[in-house]
# Entry
Amino acid sequence: MNTQAQKIVVVGNGMVGHHFVDEMAKHAGYEITVLSAEDRLAYDRVHLSEYFSGKTADDLAMTTPAYYNEIGVKFFTNAKVTHIDKAKKVVTTEAGKTYAYDKLVMATGSYPFVPPIPGKERDHCLVYRTIQDLEDIQASAKTGKVGVVVGGGLLGLEAANALKELGLETHVVEFAPQLMGVQLDKDGGALLRSMIEGIGVQVHTQKATSEIVDGEECVHRMNFADGSHLETDVILFSAGIRPYDNLAREFDLALGERGGIVIDNYCKSSDESIYAIGECALWNNFIFGLVAPGYTMAKVTADNIIGGEQQFTGADMSTKLKLMGIDVGSIGDAHARTQGCKSYVYSNQPDQIYKKIVVSANGKELLGAVLVGDTSEYDALLQYALNGIELPENPDGLILPSSGEKPTLGVDALPNTATICSCLNVTKGDIIAALDCGAIDVGEVKSSTKAGSGCGGCAALLKKVTDHELAKRGVEISTDLCEHFAYSRVELFHIVQAQQIKTFDLLIEKHGSGLGCEICKPATASILASVWNDYILKPDHVSLQDTNDVFLGNMQKDGTYSVVPRMPGGEVTPDKLIVIGEVAKEYNLYTKVTGGQRIDLFGARVDQLPAIWKRLIDAGMETGHAYGKSLRTVKSCVGSTWCRYGQQDSMAMAIFLEDRYKGLRSPHKIKFAVSGCTRECAEAQSKDIGIIATENGWNLYVSGNGGMKPRHGDLFAIDLDDQTLVKYIDRYLMFYVRTADRLTRTSVWLENLEGGLAYMEKIVKDDHLGINAELENQMQNVVDTYQCEWKTTIESEDQLKRFRQFVNSDTVDNNIEFVTERDQIRPAQGEEKKYGVQIQAVDLTSA
Amino acid sequence: MTIENSWQTICPTTDLIKNSGVCALLANEEQVALFQIGNDKIYAVSNFDPFGKANVLYRGLIGETKGEVYVASPLLKQRFYLNSGACLDDDAFAIKTYQTRVTDGKLEIFG
# Structure
């Protein structure tokens, strides 16, 4: 029997159950079986709200059947366990199947608590917990106009955000006198409330719902104990969680007074062979409703099963998050309950910032903190609190605006036990170990420690620690652009500007070596264009440009190009649309509407491009720069001119901005969007520059991204008038153009920028560096010297000569062949080609 | 039908673009990418990108590493030395190279 694998049965496959499987599967000699009552495997509940912002169930999935197969884990969905035989060590599912175990791990999680209010079971009374719940909420929201969340805690506010995003008039009803009573103190809660109300969510505190009955104008009427009432179509209950412990209750495992499977420091229940982890487990009379402690329990359990000695000794419940664009942070003893403790408070009503730190009686230790409106100090404060690092003499300096010297916590001061990534519980020591094992940069540290793969909030700190440790080892982190220039892009930008350098030849002669390469040439071309804005195909510049810029089109896989005329804000007259259609028809181009609200014509040969563009330009169109590292589009909704919800003329603003910034060469492409109201139809929060109309003006979001690594833009400023909006964008963009590395989008640039968003706010809003006038002038110069590159090109005989496939023949490339699919062309592939490939590569291996 | 290799007159050297490329069609329909580096050095290599399988190499950027000149494909950026045709990024690939000469201001290719 000794040789047989130990049988581990896991009940439940939520985030924590899955994490346990991952941990356990690292060890050989165990047969793992997962029984899940749900119909899908584990998914990410922490980012559940992103389901409404476009993520699919697949995006949220944390594992797949294929992965479990690969690591040799047996799993059964729709397999609800209904019986545990502790003596025989066997569990039975609803379907009557039995599974024997040596160790049983309960990871059954929790369910949302619905207060016993008469009427709570009416239609459109829902909870917010699973993907199924979200689907129900979405369906209900379609039929209603008003939504109420019962519960003003962290989850309740996330649910409120979801209702708001679904376009409902949103209310939050809270029994307590303040929002987020667990994490925030009274004043922090009050500021959060006013900010949330400022973005249109109505908050009702100290309201006890006594019943839900038929409404007059809406589906429901909620009657409150104080005699008031509220009408609504949808109700979401978010009044806390309760552990799923019914199995344990029925089969006699010890439970807490208010539920929860009692566990010891090894995560063992009252039965020697049964463990409980995550939100169904009660440790020290406490249920941890966060994922990180659950992960720790999973790790401890796996370790205990293999005979290890790890223990679970509680967890830090500090949290930092963004609720409806508002930064909120809470650390440790936020309510200053520790005996003898003292608090420091910074409150800035005009800028809507509230910060408090709680320190020990002797003033040496940080016990807790509350941050609302600005969480830029969160990481440093958390490290002070978690590691008992001695506070500076004047701890209030940690939260005061940095007019003078701000005490900073260097990463060097962190002990090796300091937790850097709390989701995956990676310490500074783990990072050092990864470097010892050969990791050479942040990317490799991430993949070997998994740090940063949870909420991602530690990215900046992780990079700082890694870089610092590398520097300590004498590893120089080279910022050289390439072998020809011992300068970073930023430094080259300064050189070009300061020394008035206008050509690559001069730059490499004076400041570089060799002939240049495919890295430094386009980077220099981009810098020269940003600073001087010359025609990019001047003889001095043409050999520096990527092929897309040389032929002013996007090269496709077969060597043909796409043609995209500019359509500011997605607006186009029927006449122009007809010309585009005629051109597409005449040249037989594949035609598709792009994500940037314009039209892309594919399959143009290089020799056809000038004639195509002449037609478009004669019809009043111009280049769309779809090929450039430059402004692409400003996406827009129709706004207040047509839409009954529109707050401002988003269309006019989008067109103005697209005309202003078109042609701006930058380190990477730039996308804008302008939405006419908070419904956000233009998806501005996923753009480098996003603008959302408010009743009073414009809210500006910065450094959002769709694409490879989606990122919601950060709310940068609110209720701006037109002039201030443009000034802010001028400054923000030009600072990005000056300081970003090559091929770095604004999202990554901002995340890597020391000081981050707060620093950019200081620069743009307070002229912290005293360069705003310069940034604006530089942008104005780009605006004033704009030219349509295609117009300049077709007017030049010399330029047109380049648009021939052959210098010695007027024939065309016969390797470009098309076939028809869905009534349009597409490139012929493989055997579809009639002429086939004329020239084969030399095969060196047989030579 | 095979065509004997011979010197073929392509174009006046003034049709070349300094530090950049143009393309020529040979009698046997082979496409040749022509690069003028600096004021007088001329290279001729196959125009066919064996990775992207398209006739595009003449539109690639010219680079230099440790004194050797290469072209980077505009499709997926693989680099090929202009003097040998060897690929810097994958030993298993190389592109054909051609001899060139200039006669009376006209570029000729042997191919």
